Amino acid sequence: xxxxxxSPVLSGTVFAATEPTVAPAPAAPLSLQVSEYAQAVAAGxxxxxxRSHRRRQIDGALFGALxxxxxxVLDRLTPGTDHSLRTAREDSxxxxxxxxxxxxxxxxxxxxxxxxxxxxxxxxxxxxxxQAGVNGRIRPDELALVSAHENN
Length: 152
What we know:
Layout: E1 31-32, H1 37-42, E2 46-49, H2 53-59, E3 66-67, H3 73-77, E4 94-97, H4 102-113, E5 119-122, H5 125-132, H6 140-151
Parallel strand pairs: 1-5, 2-3, 2-4, 4-5
């Protein structure tokens, strides 16, 4: 016995078409290898951990990184939006880190398409960083702030 499933007819419904995001091929690289991470951060790039809060709790925080929900990254890191970070500029250097690198790749591409040419993602994401023993760095002033907070 077979059953057929008919899709309902949507009469009178109009779907708004949006233009696809189109951008020229970036002159800057889109990705960063785990072995290049520490050097890029030392040179002033800002790591952005786009993993979920739950994932950070399970696998650990990425030291020295901003934690920004993936759903908010484009608005927060693009200059000129109502929700932009103060440090968001077209010349900002962002290193996006997701769990396996795929989500961060998509976000880095969209940031570059918006004109933020120095947005890159870490190939293999946090998972590969953990395997390589790379977990960011806590600056002395950040450590002092944590220490002062714990003593109060």
